[in-house]
Amino acid sequence: MTATVRKLEKAGRFADARAVARILQPEEPVFLFSAPQLLARLKTFQKGFPGTTSFAVKSNPSPDVIACLAKAGLKHWDVASVHEMEAVRAQTPKPVFHYHNPVKSRREIADAYGRYGCRRFAVDCREELAKIADIAGSDTSIEIAVRFVLPRDRGSSAHDFSTKFGAPEHVAVALLEEAARRGYRPLLTFHPGSQTRDPQTYVRHIEAAARIAAAAGISLTKLNVGGGFPADYPNSKGGPLEIFFHTIGQAVTRSFGAGHEPQLECEPGRGLVASAMSLLTRIKLVCSDGDDIFINDGVYGGLMEFMQVPELQPPHRVIRDGEILAGPAKPWKVFGPTCDPLDVLPHRLELPAHIMDEDFIEFGTLGAYGIATSTMFNGYGGHRVIPVETALAT
Ligand SMILES: *Cc1c(COP(=O)(O)O)cnc(C)c1O
To answer: Less packed terminus of the chain by CB within 10 Å, N or C?
Structure first.
């Protein structure tokens, strides 16, 4: 790499995928990260959400993203593991952690509490609360976030979150009571499902939170409404977040009563970072007597979520000689680089009929669950992150 290229990267001055393709011609797939796009989205949450915004680190744990958010003043981090605590603390000295994975080993609880100063733990089961109590004892600064779940509203989100975690209402009541009895600070949390498109899904959960708190005889001081906020994909438009924020604020006042609203928190992953990264891949082979192409990344790499939730198809465009390639398109079957037959995109992609090997394909809106879930299967993976002004997004 030349000194000019290093300077360009350091200054964050690649304009977009066209410039990266022209100047770097990356042979390996790379993620393109737009800090301006991330900061714009953060501002939408910070200005519009009627409470505190934290970031669900699991959706994109790359140091660039964490550092960008920390520099912009984000203080609260929803973490799924102690490893994520380490990743955040490497970028910012005094993070406040919400350990909202409802299942943690004793060792993990002890590390979070002792080494990372974590005072917020999620639970959805009495035995988990007992483990936390064994470690934290009578520390009354401990916050217990009781995660509850409602029977699923089919089709309300692209990715159902109701099947693994969350206590049913009557169990959540008992957990709130038990947390309070032990002298901890009880609060409620839920996750409505990733890419929730209907704001009413939040409303139903907020109404349930008010019922649960009332049944437990607790005046709730905090309510965390989770992640789930939608991003825009070509086949799954989230729409303006302001509608969600407004609907949530109104539902809280209606359900808890004016003047008795708990402090609100949200912890978006997808809704905050999805639009901030794209993936620049390269074509390795075009088979001319078929409709098959092979590219250098696939469902074991940055495109895994596309296989899990085909509705979240990323937008895409082809780049040749640093310019967008236009022309009559046809549907291509797109295979990834590994030797596994499962490594194929779930839908055919409309791409120009005259594509060739060494052309680039940029996939957009991959900031959430793109780099986070990519593997090293077959020796591929380990994507570099390159700063750009603009990353392709829907
Ligand atoms: C995954 C997760 C999130 C983020 O969800 P998105 O749908 O990406 O916003 C937030 N909170 C918890 C507890 C999670 O598990």
So the answer is: N
| CATH code assigned at 254 | 3.20.20.10
**Do the beta carbons of residue 7 and residue 382 sit within 8 Å?**
no
Tell whether 84 and 95 lie within a shared domain. yes
What is the domain extent for residue 13?
3-33+274-387
Q: Is residue 56 located within the same domain as residue 171?
A: yes
Host H or E run for residue 253: helix 241-256
H or E segment to which residue 303 belongs = none
- 381 DSSP 8-state letter: -
Does residue 393 lie in a domain region?
A: no
Give the predicted TM-score (pTM) of the model.
0.95
**Atom number, ligand 1, closest to the C-alpha of residue 100:** 13
Number of independent structural domains in the chain? 2
Handedness of CA 68, 70, 76, 78 (dihedral sign): positive
- Distance (Å, whole) CA 175 – CA 146: 7
Is residue 394 in some structural domain? no
Q: Is 161 in the pocket of ligand 1 (CB under 6 A)?
A: no
34 lines ligand 1 (CB under 6 A): no
Residue 270 near ligand 1, beta carbon < 6 Å: yes
111 phi and psi angles, rounded to 5 deg:
-65, -45
Q: What is the pLDDT along the chain (394 residues), one digit of tens a residue?
A: 566 666 665 565 799 999 999 999 999 999 999 999 999 999 999 999 999 999 999 999 999 999 999 999 999 999 999 999 999 999 999 999 999 999 999 999 999 999 999 999 999 999 999 999 999 999 999 999 999 999 876 667 777 777 889 999 999 999 999 999 999 999 999 999 999 999 999 999 999 999 999 999 999 999 999 999 999 999 999 989 999 999 999 999 999 999 999 999 999 999 999 999 999 999 999 997 889 999 999 999 999 999 889 899 999 999 999 999 999 999 999 999 999 999 999 999 999 999 999 999 999 999 999 999 999 999 999 999 999 999 999 9
Residues 131 and 241 in one domain: yes
- Candidates 41, 52, 59: which one to mutate for ligand 1, based on the most atoms within 8 Å of Cβ? 59
The answer on 304 and 167 residing in a single domain is: no
In degrees to the nearest 10, what's the CA dihedral of 15, 16, 20, 26? 150
